[in-house]
Amino acid sequence: MNWNLKLRNKIILAFIGYSILLSSLTILGVILATQISETRSYRNRAKIEAEYYLSDYISSFNAPSSNSFNSTKPPSPFITTYFGNELLPKWVPEKVPALKEGTYFVDHYQQKYCLLIRRLPDGENFYLLYNISRQGKYSASLHSLQRSILLTLLPIMILALILGLVTAHKVIGPILKLDSFIRNRPENERLPEYFDKNIHADEIGFLAKTLTKSINNMHDSIERENSFARDASHELRTPVTTMKNSLELLDELNPEMDKNVEKIIGRISRATSNMEHLIKSFLWLSRRKNLDDFDSVEVPIKELVHEVISEQSYILEKRDVVITVFDEGSENITAEPQLTKILIANLVRNAFTYTNSGYVKIHINKSCFQIHDSGRGIKPEVLKMMNKDLKAFPADGFGLGISIVKRLCNSLGWSFYIFSEEGKGTVARICYNTADDCANCAGFSLQSNRVARVENV
């Protein structure tokens, strides 16, 4: 059962619960009060009768005698008096063995009695036995009084419940209005300036004003970031294209150039290619944010991987690194070709860049793309930080490339895993078939204590 109720339902349930609790306590209080009142009434009746009876027959400390049998009977047929223990019913000492002064309530043969005991001046006891079980008419009157009180309280409690619910609705009305507006508005739009002005200038109004300001500032910041990335990327494409064309022209005009000059031109060419790759990545990130924004077609993942390796292989020049591709039943995937290439290229570039010797192994199958290198790896604290906030850890090592991969995977709804041991290498995986469980695919088992699955944020 889901107990995550809405605020309105919580408040209504709280009012109903408190109303039922208070009503129950009120009814219980009325019943207890009338019962206590009835008991006190019997006790006081017995006390008054005893005092009245004794005041008529006791004129001194020595008279009348406790053994007087010619005493006048009490006026009430429900009251019997006894002087001394001789004529006292035998069951009374059994019920009240001590026979000390006081008032007692006892039962005998389905009869209820109120027994009052007083010590006379001559040392004997005076007993007044009041049969209260025969006072049925008084009990009926008491029950009638209880019903009258409860029937009077019932409409009052119902009215209080209705007023409480109306008050609760009035109190939470602005909150419900705020919630409804936020839920129904388009996700990527600013809040209108008049939004907070439709709410009273109280605590909720202050919250609405702060919310409007915060959301609009956030949208402005995101828009500035996207505009900067988009404009900067467009502006940078022209000089990068010029540099690339100039390098190609220079290579054609001087086919037999000096080796030192050729090395310098090679470095410039690689730097230009890197810049072009980053510009493409930034443009994709700034233009498209959701899966619906992409035009998906069939992409031959195997051919794409070999194409990326061919383009990035210059990074491994003069390095003793063996590249191996394992095709474990790869199939064409439905995705945007350029975006898929950017994802794979970022991971391949990272693996090539930070592997000075050893191997780079690439596994591809119908569900995943995985790359495993024997490079320097990632520090444990950095790997742990990646799962919390990818933006927080430094760009050194896998920073920028992993950041781009993560954001693009989030946009596509794909899963991204990374496993690393400092000094031993890194394994990165993209699972583009989210319907399958890829926890143990592509040649290695994810170890929970050393693997970060980069979640959507």
Automatic annotation (TrEMBL):
SMART domains referenced in this protein's UniProt entry, alphabetically: HATPase_c (SM00387), HisKA (SM00388)
Gene Ontology CC: plasma membrane
Reactions that this protein is recorded to catalyse: ATP + protein L-histidine = ADP + protein N-phospho-L-histidine
Source species taxonomy: Bacteria, Pseudomonadati, Deferribacterota, Deferribacteres, Deferribacterales
Superkingdom, natural source: Bacteria
A GO molecular function held by the record: ATP binding
Record-annotated Histidine kinase domain positions: 231-436
This enzyme's EC code(s): 2.7.13.3
Topology of the protein relative to the lipid bilayer: Multi-pass membrane protein
Name of the protein: histidine kinase
Chief location of this protein within or outside the cell: membrane
Xref: CDD domains: HisKA
Keywords: ATP-binding, Cell membrane, Kinase, Membrane, Nucleotide-binding, Phosphoprotein, Transferase, Transmembrane, Transmembrane helix, Two-component regulatory system
